[in-house]
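During the reporting period the student researcher (J.K.) took over the structure-prediction task from the postdoctoral fellow and processed the backlog of single-chain submissions. One of the processed entries is reproduced below for the supervisory committee.
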Amino acid sequence: ASPVPSGAASTDRENAPPRSRPPAATPGPGYTPPPEGDPDSPAECRLPDASADIAYDPDDPPAVTWEKLTALVCGRSQALGSYLTRSTLHRIGDGEIEIAVQGSAFNLKQIQKKQEILQDAARAFFGRSVRLSLRLEEAGGDPRQNKIEQAHAIRQDALNHPMVAAAIEIFDGTVVDVKIL
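J.K. obtained the following C-alpha cells:
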C-alpha cells in the first residue's frame, strides 16, 4: 500500500454520520408531575435583576426586605437561596434578624451549613453586621410530607452542586434523573 500524504488522510471518524443525543428519559408509568405552585417542589432561586434596587430600606415591609435579601443570597449561592425562599423573615430589630425556616430540621441544617454566606450577604445588605437567629417552624409534623420535602431538598442540592454543573457543561448534557440512595 502506498502512503497517504499528510492532510489527505481520512479516518472513519470523519466519515461517520454525526452522533445524535439519546432521547430524554421519560418518567415511569406511575409518575404524576407536581401541580404548579406545589410547596414540596424545589423552590426556585431568583437572581436579582440588574436594574432592581436590592438596597435595604427601613420603610419597606418585611416581605419586600426578605425578597431583596433572598435575591442577594441567590446571587452568591443558589442552593442556599432555594432554602431561604421556603423561609420567612420573622423579625428585624436591634442588630438582629430572625428567620423562620419552614419545613423540617433538614432545611434548618442546610441553611446553618451555609450560614457564613448568609451572614456576609446580610452584612452587605444592611450595611452593618447583624446577628442571625434561625428558628424552625414545623410544617405540621406529617412524617410522610417531611420525607418528601427532604427528598426534594436533597435533589435540589444535587442539581445545584458545582461538580454537577461542571459535568453538564463539559459533556454538554442534561440531568435526567436524581436517585436518592
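The committee noted the following: Residues 104 and 142 are 10 Å apart (CA to CA).
J.K. will present the remaining backlog at the next meeting.
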